[in-house]
Amino acid sequence: MERGLPTKALWDRLPEIVRFRDQPGMTETYSFAGAEGTTELEGQLFRQRARPSKAVYLFMHPTATVQLLPMPEALADAGLHVLCASSRYPRNDSALIMEKVAYDMGQWVRHARESLGYEKVILVGWSGGGSLSLFYAAQSEHPTITHTPAGDLYDLTAARLQRVDGIVLIAAHLSRAEVLTEWLDPSVIDEFDPDTRDLEFDIYSPDCPNKPPFTADFIAAFRERQRARNRRITAWAEEMLATLRRRNDGETERAFVTHRTMCDVRWIDPTIDPNGRAPGASYLGNPRTVNVGPAGLARFSTLRSWLSQWSYDLSNSKAAVNATKIHRTPVLQIENEADDAVPASHNPIIHNALTVANKEFVSIKGATHFYQGQPEHVSACIDGIIDWSHRNDL
């Protein structure tokens, strides 16, 4: 990368499509390509008009499409080449399998090098893209996974995942499974009747006897109930999957709804994992509303998808676990100090778990999850990435 980048570079937004045949299985997404047995991935390349580069910054999230987020455009404005990549599950994670998403990321890394001609690929993991990037990097350095948590064959050891040249984590959480568990409403007693709840843990109810600021004992009990609920759903999913396999009558999957998934003591008690977030709010809006709304995490899922991306005990895509397996890839970790999504405890856990010697940690005071109305914090993030890239010859 060359120094002296312009503050507002000229770049083009170009469509990119990656097609490949994948390991066989049931049709998971509604598309013509899927019916043909072909997987198609869509993305956008932000390519500089007058500044060729040997490096590209690859943004990817398990399910979100990232090309309209502020950070990719800001990096392109700063003169960098950016590839915004989607998985095979864009904007719909109900059937998402994390092992397949890692494979999709590998196809984009290969495409960036072999089709687009970039020599260096830097993963940029924003939010849920952070644990995905670490999952991919761990499997590219030392692949071990041959099956999904549901027991289905999906061999990443044979995928020839290419190593990347660097990883940038921005507002990254521990994993989809862990952040969901910390948001599961522990008052739910019956998964099929969300109105049947334990009032002692129904913190959004005005009749709940426990009020903020919450005691340490209550918080501990609250967390244990959340983990127990995740494990009950996991056990049910495993049992149902086993039942379907025993029947062997053509029904191989089951869809279901997980109710009330945005309930965290942090949302209404800012003394818990304190940071600069606004109390009583979340990145998706009023947490009481999001708790029962259609956009809540894991609201719609399949058995296999739950086990792969949402199970607290079985998911392979845990940032802290995979961070211990990365030994050769430099990592820049950027924490948003006023993050209204990622718990304040998550980034330090990831940083402490990283075993690679070349790791750096930057905290941007006042920055929220999406940097909404915060151009100065976006600039600070961009400056940090560019400085780190220079020093690592990227």
From TrEMBL:
SUPFAM superfamilies: alpha/beta-Hydrolases. Residues 71-143 form the AB hydrolase-1 domain. This is Alpha/beta hydrolase. Keywords: Hydrolase. The keyword Hydrolase applies. It comes from the Bacteria. GO terms for molecular function: hydrolase activity. The keyword Transport does not apply.
